[in-house]
Amino acid sequence: MVCLRWLVWSCICAIGVSTIVCLPARIGGGGKAGANFGRGRLYSSRIPIMIQHRNPQSATYYDNKDGAKIVKSSHFEYEYMLGRKITFFCMAQGLPRPEITWFKDGIELYHHKYFQVHEWTEGNDTIKSKMEIDPATQKDAGFYECQANNQYAIDYRAFRTDYAMLTY
Q1: Residue 133: phi, psi to the nearest 5?
Q2: GO terms for CC (predicted)?
Q3: What is the pLDDT of residues 77-89, one digit of tens each?
């Protein structure tokens, strides 16, 4: 008898891409055997998926001209030196002016001794945000996102970081 409690195959299919990627996902308890099953870094670029609106009212809501939109941001990949500063930038527009929130590996970041966010506004509809980590450690490697949102829309940009080791 196959025990589906231990292993579920999840298939992820991106529209417009001819490949289907199947990843095993463990569910349930399990003790030490397979404790690292399914763990580790998995980076993938996010492909924009166009989803058709079900009715015209949705289109006018989601495609609102005043919705939050990120218009400038840092590069996608960033390699940093241990002990140095990591900096990411996002600039968003929208009416009302959007708020920008920073995430690392899907978890919202909050101010602490080594992490700071600087924000400034331009006009009634633009906000700029700069996130800094100083000094950077090995734990700072990962997947960062800046998310801009207002009452009409949410937009985000993602950045991947990893550290570089100097060899002499």
Answers
A1: -125, 120
A2: plasma membrane
A3: 989 999 999 999 9
